[in-house]
C-alpha cells in the first residue's frame, strides 16, 4: 500500500512518517517544498518536491504515486501568524486543500483521504459547552480557525458530490519532540532549556496564561490518524483529544519542575491575541467508539521528552 503525506517535513507529518514506516506493507511517500528543513526525515521515505498551493505539481505527484491513502497535514498551522498573514493562511489552508482534493478526484478516486482539522474550528465555547462534541457550533475566533472550517467543509462537500473517501479529524492540541519553537509548549521548553544550559536570562515572556488546552502527545495523535483512515466513517468529523485540560500556567509549572532551574514567568501583552479561545476540552467519544483508540503517553512524559529534545538540540 502507498501512503502519501502532505507536510511530511512538519511536526505531525514527520511523526506520522515514522509511525507508518514501522507498519508492514506500507510504502511511504511525502510532499516537501524545495527549501524545507529535512532534519527529521528518514531515508526510507520517497520524497516528492511540490507545493500544495501549486495545483500542477500536486497533480503530477498524485498521478505518479497513485496512493491508497492520502494524509493531508500541510497547512499554515500557527494561530498567531494567521492574524499577521491572513491571506497566506487562507490561501494555503483552503486552496491548498482544494488542490489535494482535485488531484485525488482525478488520479486517486479510490484513495482514503484524511483532512486534518483543528479544535480551533470551534472557537468561542461557553464553559457549559465543554467537553466539546462534534455537534458543537463552529464559531472560529481566528483566520486560522476560519480556514480549517473551510477545509473541513470542502472535504464534506467532495465526499457528498464525488464519493471521495474523506476522513475528517479535528485534532485538539498536540505536542512533543520536534514541535516548532513558536508553539507555546515548545516556547516554554526551549527557553527553560536555554536557561538550564546557561545561555539565556531566567525570564520567560508569555501571552494568555489562563487559556485551557487539551494536549495529546503527537505520537499518540498520528496513531489516531492511522486508525481514522481504517475505521472511521467518511464524510463526518471526529474529535481527537484526551479530555483533560491544562492552563498554560500549569504547563509552565510542569516544565519548570522538569527543568529544575530558577526562572521568572511574565505575561507580555505583545503575545496576546486579538481574540483568544478561552477553553478547548475534547469529547472524543465518537472517535474512541469507532477506533478503540486511547492516549497511551502521559502528559508528564510528553513534556519530559519535549524538554530533553530542546536540551539536546541547543547544546
Runs in which pLDDT lies below 50 for 5 or more consecutive residues are none
The CATH superfamily of the largest domain is: NAD(P)-binding Rossmann-like Domain
CATH topology of the largest domain: Rossmann fold
Coarse morphology: globular
- Strand tally, please? 13
Q: Which radius of gyration do the C-alpha atoms yield?
A: 19 Å
Q: Specify the number of helices.
A: 10
The pLDDT mean sits at: 94
Trace the largest sheet across and list its strands.
3-2-1-4-5-6-11
The quaternary state of the protein chains shown equals: single chain
Strand content: 15-25%
Helices and strands, in order, run as EHEEHEHHEHEEHEEEHEEHEHH
What is the CATH architecture descriptor of the largest domain?
A: 3-Layer(aba) Sandwich
* N- and C-termini, Cα separation: 40 Å
Secondary-structure-derived class: alpha/beta
Largest sheet: 7 strands, parallel
Amino acid at each position: 500500500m502507498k501512503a502519501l503525506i502532505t507536510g511530511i517535513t512538519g511536526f505531525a507529518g514527520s511523526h506520522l512518517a515514522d509511525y507508518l514506516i514501522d507498519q508492514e506493507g506500507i510504502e511511504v511517500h511525502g510532499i516537501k517544498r524545495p527549501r524545507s528543513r529535512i532534519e527529521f526525515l528518514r531515508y526510507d521515505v520517497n520524497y516528492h518536491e511540490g507545493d500544495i498551493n501549486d495545483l500542477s505539481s500536486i497533480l503530477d505527484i498524485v498521478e505518479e504515486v497513485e496512493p491508497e491513502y492520502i494524509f493531508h497535514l500541510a497547512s499554515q498551522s500557527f494561530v498567531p501568524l494567521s492574524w499577521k498573514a491572513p491571506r497566506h493562511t487562507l490561501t494555503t489552508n483552503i486552496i491548498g486543500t482544494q488542490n489535494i482534493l482535485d488531484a485525488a478526484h482525478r488520479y486517486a478516486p479510490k484513495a482514503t483521504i484524511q483532512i486534518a482539522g483543528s479544535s480551533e474550528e470551534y472557537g468561542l465555547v461557553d464553559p457549559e459547552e465543554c467537553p466539546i462534541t462534534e455537534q458543537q457550533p463552529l464559531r472560529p475566533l481566528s483566520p486560522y480557525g476560519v480556514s480549517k472550517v473551510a477545509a473541513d467543509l470542502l472535504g464534506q462537500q467532495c465526499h457528498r458530490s464525488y464519493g471521495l473517501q474523506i476522513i475528517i479529524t479535528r485534532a485538539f492540541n498536540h505536542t512533543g519532540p520536534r514541535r516548532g519553537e513558536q508553539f507555546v509548549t515548545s516556547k516554554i521548553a526551549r527557553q527553560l532549556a536555554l536557561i538550564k544550559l546557561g545561555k539565556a536570562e531566567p525570564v520567560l515572556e508569555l501571552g494568555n496564561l489562563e487559556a485551557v488546552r487539551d494536549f495529546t502527545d503527537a505520537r499518540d495523535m498520528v496513531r489516531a490518524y492511522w486508525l481514522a483512515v481504517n475505521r472511521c466513517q467518511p464524510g463526518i468529523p471526529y474529535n481527537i483529544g484526551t479530555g483533560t485540560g491544562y492552563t498554560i500556567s500549569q504547563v509552565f509549572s510542569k516544565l519548570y519542575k522538569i527543568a529544575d532551574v530558577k526562572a521568572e514567568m511574565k505575561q507580555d501583552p505583545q503575545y496576546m491575541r486579538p481574540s483568544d479561545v478561552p477553553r478547548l476540552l475534547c469529547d472524543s467519544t465518537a472517535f474512541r467508539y469507532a477506533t478503540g483508540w486511547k492516549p497511551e503517553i502521559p502528559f508528564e512524559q510528553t513534556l519530559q521528552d519535549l524538554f530533553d529534545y530542546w536540551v539536546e538540540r541547543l547544546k
